Amino acid sequence: MKSKITYLALSLLTYLNVSGQKTEFVKSDSIIYPIHKSNIGKIAFMGQAIAIENFKETDFLKSVELKEKTELNIRVFLGTSLTNYIHLLSPQSTANELTKNGNYQFTFFVDNKKIYVENLNIGAGTTESKNQKTIFRVPLISSTNEDSWGKFLWNRFFGNGGQEALSHGEHLLKIEIRPYLKLTEVLTGNIIAEGQIKIIVPEIKIDEKLAKVQSIKPIKDWQISTEKIDIAKIEELNRKIAKKTYKNITSIVAIKDGKILIEEYFNGANRNTLHDTRSVGKSFASTLLGIAIKDKFIKSETQTLKEFYNLKSFQNYSTPKDSITLKSLLTMSSTLEGSDMNSESPGNEENMYPTKNWVEFALNLPIDKTKQPDKQWDYFTAGCIVIGDIIHKSVPNGLEKYATKSLFRPLGITKYKWQFTPQKVANTAGSLQLSSLDYAKFGQLYKNLGTWDGKQILTQEWIAKSLSHQMTISDDEFYGYLFWNKTYKINGLDYEVYYSRGNGGNRIFIFKDQPIVIVITSTAYNTPYGEKQVEKIMQEYLIPAISK
User: Fold this and answer.
1) Are strands 135-141 and 249-256 parallel, antiparallel or unpaired?
2) Rounded to whole angstroms, how far apart are CA atoms 475 and 363?
3) Residues 260-310: tens digit of each pLDDT
4) Which run of H or E residues covers position 288?
5) Ranges of H-type helices in 380-475
6) Pairing between strand 193-201 and 169-182?
7) 38, 268, 373, 481: which is deepest, by most CB within 10 A?
8) Per-residue model confidence as pLDDT tens digits over 219-236
């Protein structure tokens, strides 16, 4: 480590020559406003955005109340531009290297406790702003939904501990900003701006009736369980949903021993609501393929793409495409150059949706030479579209009618809604909409080892393959045939679950060793809290409440 010269001293040594004139690595904007000169190194909080030429110290907010229509902006006063600060971390690097590999680091404290640290994504802010700006404004909370990286930064802080820390009452929020640079390792500078504000969080008062466990009305296809649950746990959960500690939850259903144990609806949803659970629908593609194999319309999941398509008629043909199997698409382990986890990937789903033919999009992709067949898991929505197209071509009357006849009707599911591809094929990438109890039927079908009302809809062999550790995602997470797998550890006990998973915290959980199925639906799409809150709901409330 270099000797600990303070960052301000280092900055002065770097940017002032012997005559006291500023010398910079890149030329930044001049500091011309008196309010800027007197507040270098500070973060000012403000409500409505005020133009810098009209901004006065009396406009600095000392406190703010977090309400439905809150406005909260920060204005950051710097001594020089970000690029010049980053240059201190790597004097040998070029300006281009600095702007492409560095940005601001934000640290959030609540009541003097560090809650969240983020190295802002490299793409946040333009090269010009990094090189020149010595003052900038960012909206953190905007009632007009102003588009800015600041809003998403605040949401990530809120979803990663901020919401819990900012409980009812008064709190001190402090933000520190540093420069960072990621080359072979991440280098972080000292503070270049900081500020704090009192946050007042009003108590959200609710009608206590909303916290009560909801009564389960008789329904034709389900019996109602008489097993006991921890009512206090469920009421605490309901209260948090009503107070929007857990946001956008629309339903929670728990089935135990094939009977309804919990059936709760929130935010305007009810028993008849059709929920858009996004990628939960991918698991239905696995089910329908298994049924088509049972019915002998498709031989097996080991069949290759060349048995269904003339691959040479698509772009980027190479012989490895011939050996891609349906199984590799089910397990997200094909060698096609597609990854939804990488925004730069040619096969990212966001590149697929605007195209006129999603199947062609997938089959036109080149082979990723860094991938070994069936060895590397990589989330790939376009592969599910190919599975759907193959089912559609192979079964009588197409995928939609086949699903109705072979899956929905046997389960007694009469109300559902598909989305469709541009070729008007039922979309197996997701957004198949069912009621919560009908999603529970789907999960219970797997608990029943493929049977429903005495009829074998899916083979036990297909269930076993689907709910198995086909691919390793991480040390404690696995993937089967379009089903996820993980284990919750609660009070010294393990609860292994296979589950369908959709954007925003939508889930169908199938417990491996307990006679339990849980459905959670949500509209928290593309939020920083949607996925995290469903984990807390399972870990802290549902499993403890029903597994006794």
Assistant:
1) unpaired
2) 31
3) 999 999 999 999 999 999 999 999 999 999 999 999 999 999 999 999 999
4) helix 281-294
5) 381-394, 398-403, 436-447, 460-466
6) antiparallel
7) 481
8) 999 999 999 999 999 999
